Amino acid sequence: MKTRNQFFGLIAIAIIATAIIGCGDGGGGNSSPQKQPDTTRTLSFGTDCKVTIKSDDLFLTAEWTALCDKVVAAIERGYNGDTSPFNEAEFKRIFASNISIVLLKTTTYKCEVKSGNYTTILLKTSTLDTVDIKLAVWALGDEEAYQPS
Asked: Is the pTM of this model over 0.90?
């Protein structure tokens, strides 16, 4: 009887250990938020159009992947919409250069280009589904004063 109870006890421990080891964030990545590596994504328009997405904020791997997808969607939404005050060729030219998007969880503006840094757009993560980045892209290409939205 004692051996049988020990056997079932070992089986129960093995099952619990397997369950604990199998737990994670569901995405096969990290289970706690951490700084994610810079991610370069190719855009659907233009031959060499791409963007590098960065952040110093902490995210789960699956969350970061979803945010990067939203950044690409926001850029392509701007390209496919009315591209005034410039044409599609200008939009392509800008994203064929070394453009970065920095994602911020907390920031005053939804979208911003800092004066003197015309290769980077700052985006607020909570507004990625609705942000209009056309003026920011225009500011990158024109390097003139930009009023954040």
From this structure: no
